[in-house]
Amino acid sequence: MSGIGRVIKWFAIATAVLAALVLVGGLVIYSRISGMEVERVSEDLHVITGAGGNVAVLATSEGAVVVDSMSFEFQGEAIRARAEELTGEPVVLVINTHYHLDHTHGNPAFAPGTRVVSTARTLHHLTTRDAWYWNGDAAGLLPNETFELERELRVGDKTLRLYHPGRGHTDGDLVVLFVEERVIHMGDLFFNRSYPNIDLEAGGSVRDWGDSLEQVFPLEFDRVIPGHGPTTDRVGLRQFQRFMRQLAKVGAEAARAGWSAERTLAEGEFDEDEGYEPMEIPLVLQLDRDFVLRRSWEEATGAVKAD
Fold it and tell me: How far apart are CA 205 and CA 201, in angstroms?
């Protein structure tokens, strides 16, 4: 075989091996993304967890209610099927806690004409910051009902109270109180035992986050569904509030002292994150101690402001 022939042969082999590795890698990633688990929180309320924000499914006498829809349309299809399996009813209402893709991009899997509720700010962010995704058929599953501060929904035999308690993760987050279940879904206003994303560019605020959480505690609930992490109770939510308040304090003190971001990361007194786990959004974002400290410093010093 000539030298050129050998090169061609080895190039073909290398190409085949690379293609196989890409295929295997893709299958592994797909398996991780498509995997979902279900937790029963009450007689009529379940939580679906997977590669995306936690999804709540409520059974009512008029149909199923779904809160958030994960990151991909195929995940939305799986959520829709699981919701119908768990409740025995079609999905009649989807609620989006905020605009991020890991809580909304599954929406297009639901039936055209489905009622979709969010805050007005969330709809604004979806149609501006995330506009590339919401075109064609997907646009039909954008929120079609919005509110500013508070909305009560009666769906069959169930009552849902939706609140926008203030700035935190973004400037448009809502929480859902399942009244009869005494359970609250916090969306990404609560990351349970993991470092949160802080979207300053979309109006999020380390400084205001603790006060926004305080607005929730007078509500009547026993169990808490976070946007990410395991379900918990009021004690778990209080710990996260302490985390956010201390984080805000670190940023404010660093700004007053004129510290750099690097000095804040190295010397800021921050210990409410004991036991917290980092989260990675591959090729996009690493949510860890350095990330949240930097975000606190950026807000406190004015280095980053909302767009």
Answer: 9
Q: How many helices and strands in the chain, by DSSP H and E?
A: 8, 15
In the CATH scheme, what architecture does the domain 34-233 have? 4-Layer Sandwich (3.60)
Q: What is the pLDDT of residues 128-176, one digit of tens each?
A: 999 999 999 999 999 999 999 999 999 999 999 999 999 999 999 999 9
Joined together, the tokens standing for residue 67 give 């809160």
Q: Residue 93: beta bridge partners?
A: 65, 115
**Cβ partners under 8 Å of residue 293, min gap 6:** 247, 250, 251, 264, 265, 268, 270
Task: Report the pLDDT value the prediction gives residue 281, as an integer from 0 to 100.
Answer: 76
Distance, CA of 130 to CA of 100 (rounded, Å): 8
Report the relative pairing of strands 285-287 and 183-185 from DSSP bridges: unpaired
pLDDT tens string 81-101: 999 999 999 999 999 999 999
Average per-residue pLDDT for the chain:
91
Retrieve residue 43's tokens. 């007689």
Angstrom distance (rounded) from CA 205 to CA 169: 7
The rounded distance, in Å, linking the Cα atoms of 90 and 64 is 6
How many residues are given for the chain?
Answer: 307
